[in-house]
Amino acid sequence: MEEQFHQEYGPKWSDQRVERMLGALVVGVVALLLAMIVTVFIRAWPSFSHNGLAWFGPGGNVDDQLNAIFLSGQNGLEYVYTFHGWPLIWSTILITGAAAVIGLVCALFVAVFIVEFAPEWMSNVLQPVIRFLASVPTVIYGLIGVVVLVPFIGNHLVTESQKASVAGVISLTGYSLLAATLVLTVMITPLMVSIFSDGLRAVKPGWLEGSLALGVNRWRTTWKIGVRSARPAIVAGTVLAVARAIGEAVMLAMISGSVGFAPNPADGLIFVYEPSRPLAPTIVKNIDQLSSPPANATLFAIAAVLLFSAATFSLTGYFARRAMRKYGAA
Amino acid sequence: MRIKTLAIAAISLLGLAAPASAGAVTLIGSGSVAAQPVLQALFATYHKKVNKKVNFVYTPNGGNAGVKDVQNGTSQFAGQARTPLPSDAGTTYIKMFLDGLCLDVNPKNPLSNITIQQTHDIYRGLVTNWSQVGSSLGTTIDPVGRDTNGGTYNFFLQAVLNNEPPASNVNALTADGLVVNAVKQDPNAIGYAGLAWQKKGLKPLKVNGIPCAPSKISVEPLKYPLSRYLFLVLPGDGSTSPKALLKFVDWARRSKLAGTVIAKAGGVPAFNKK
């Protein structure tokens, strides 16, 4: 009897073996992650230690600084590390922030519509479409941006007098904050929608039914009970989307413009047409300079900042979700 | 049962991989985007007409990146669009064919001739309006160029900008194709790209009065001011490379067939038999 059991389900201790193997796998993954973080920060250290907090501040032309850093490593002279990354950081904040806000608002309403209001056949169609959109490779969005959106902005929205007013400093050719923000929004919104709608669907039906039974109308029920109890999912979706947006490199390298310029809201409307370059595309654009030790340190410093902000975001998201869990379903 | 399925799957996978490994050689290269159209044409012809057993994989990641790949052994050869620099230690440059860097504007721009000095001033941000270089367009110039990954960027830097960095209003794009695309779509743009990229929708300017055309870019003396050699970069002194690669290089440089392929793909044959 027992022998037969063993033949069919393997030796007695197979459970423990699985446990150990999976445990080892998890330890391996965590160790790899730690090793990666440590490597990035060790490599980045020279850049941070030479600049201190000025690394994050404004000052001078960041592209000239990057060039000087690179050349100092090529020529065998004393290494130059001076780097003031504010234009890149500001560009990242502007593009990611604007895309996150626009995306959040759109995604919330779309998710509410799909879950609560759309007829069944429609949400059956929309669901897979949105999941597909969330998984489209970002290069494709970049291509569409370069071929359609950028020339449209450059040729139809930007006027000659606007271009002339900044001539010689930057070119308003359509590679702009506006293009980058729009394409990034299109990129992250589907991700948000799919997470938001999962959250809305997980709201206990009893809660909604209770509200409806008291005569509260559908919109108010959805808004006050559904959306409110799905808040942890909304935070989670937003955090995921923002983390993805911050790290987006290839698409933004294609359409944000390539100048280390800090767009100035004081310039008026023209500001949204100004080119800039966020942190992640800077790594892509200068990847060729890794062989120069100071440039290597600077690029790893940028990577460290990205890594740190992604970690901060997921931690904030985690705590926000914990705080809200007592109100919510998810 | 499951094991059987797995075995069948494994065997069929092997079957897919087999044709590639049957006595064939795959040569791995990377580098210049500018040289890509001509190199790809040479690869295809060589594989089809000369030696079916030789396959090529070429990743156009920029000439400077390609040389790095050769230095650290990830590529067996690299395409390169600029002359050797001190940082290329441990590699050998072989002249493959000639190319001209054309200065392009949108066909809507009536300008037909530009000087090296004017181009220098545009890319240094000193001249910002088309009327300043004699074009009746009268609008703001949108200069477009390559980012620092491209050998084309270095060539432009040496040949036009006297090694001064381009101004901040120059939009540095990541590929020659994107530069061409930007000029096609923007009536106010000026950009630079190799002969092979000169297709419909672009207007190559005469530089110092000499048109950017294959007939003006021939073996020395190079009449067109922005003529350049395109190189193949090999590791070491070049003798350690696989025989198949050296044979291909020799064929591409000398044979008549390769000459016609180069010309058709937009390059200018330099050493091939006529």
Structural overview:
The complex is a heterodimer of chains A (about 325) and B (about 270). Chain A is an all-alpha fold and about 325 residues long. In chain A, about 75% of the residues lie in helices and about 0% in strands. Chain A has 14 helices and no strands. In chain A, helix 4 packs parallel to helix 8 (about 175-200) and helix 9 packs antiparallel against helix 10 (about 220-230). Chain A is globular and about 75 Å long. Chain B has about 270 residues and is an alpha/beta fold. In chain B, the strands form two sheets. In chain B, strands 1, 2, 3, 4, 6, 7, 8, 9 and 11 form a nine-stranded mixed sheet that branches. In chain B, strand 1, helix 2 (about 35-50) and strand 2 form a beta-alpha-beta unit. The model of chain B has no long low-confidence stretch (mean pLDDT about 85). Chains A and B meet through helix 3, helix 6 and helix 7 of A and helix 3, strand 6, strand 7 and helix 6 of B.
